[in-house]
Design a protein that fits this description.
SH3 type barrels, alpha+beta
Length: 90
């Protein structure tokens, strides 16, 4: 299974289209991402990233929807972990 996640471009560096890089935020975690496949992407744009490469741009509303879904999955995972924990004091 492959996973690609949205991130917001914070800055762009480089003029060569093949080596152009961006600082991309994934909910506060910032990574250096290759922007060669999205030559028109600019600071403030959202991109879909797979294995350190931005593979497409994405609508900001869609990116926010994915972020909300990921937060809900995390919340449900925490609830499930608490429910699976053995009772203490027995």
């Amino acid at each position: 299974m492959c996973l690609a996640v949205p991130g917001k471009i914070l800055s762009v560096a480089g003029d060569d289209p093949m080596t152009r890089m961006g600082k991309v935020s994934f909910g506060g975690v910032v990574k250096d991402i290759n922007l060669a496949c999205v030559p028109d992407a600019r600071t403030g744009d959202y991109v879909i990233v797979h294995v350190g490469v931005a593979i497409s741009t994405v609508d900001p509303q869609e990116a926010e929807r994915v972020f909300a879904d990921l937060q809900e999955i995390e919340r449900l995972g925490r609830q499930g972990s608490a429910a699976d924990a053995p009772a203490r004091g027995n």
